[in-house]
Task: structure prediction
Amino acid sequence: MLLAALRDSLRNLAAYTLDFFLPRLCLFCGEAVAPRAPAALCPACEARVPRVQSPMCPRCGRLFIHRQGPDRPCGWCLKEPPPFAAARAAVVYEEEGLSGQAIKQFKYHRRLEYLPLLTHWLTEPACLGFAAACDLMVPVPLHVRRLRERGFNQALLLARALPGRLLRDALVRTRHTQPQTGLSPTARRENVRRAFAVRRPEMIQGKSVLLVDDVYTTGATVRECSRALLAAGAREVRVLTVARVAPPGFRAG
Ligand SMILES: [Zn+2]
Ligand SMILES: [Zn+2]
Result:
């Protein structure tokens, strides 16, 4: 595993070095990208990535299927408000679309050249404004076993792109859990129950914490992280992710 990680790192380094000398190409269609573009993404592909936009639930950030009307609390939050104060994301997660491709390539295939693209979305003005209200940032942690397998924590790499104070190991994953992918909402909730602990509560007491992750799917993981942070004395938790899974039947635009 370590050797594989090293090989991948070298390959990424080589890719970065080549990038420096050759014109950058769009990661999706291969078109040349303007030299000063923030990410290897051409304008046509950029336009194909739907942004998270109103109408949504102001609390949990859930996107409404009917794209009319103002922001309003969703039925889920009215019934049982989440432990976090608010959740927002930059782009809509499309499993077969560009956002899904970028996240999967980055996370599961160690294609680090997708990181600037993800941070480009994460640092859009709406996300920066949302993050600015917090005192410090905490990435959703990986269990040490998963960290060894993957070689990096994607949430930490993403959080590093945001301005603000980053506490990289205040929150830890105490239990190795199976991947959430493919699990039902109930199974996801069970899977991450009591899987997190705050190692340095004195650092987060009374603070507004920004929890950072790559994708918000059912919110099971960030709910559980929020509970741990609040129990350790955080004043509030806000959740920021690059992408957000929309409800079935959702059509952007
Ligand atoms: Zn393109
Ligand atoms: Zn809601």
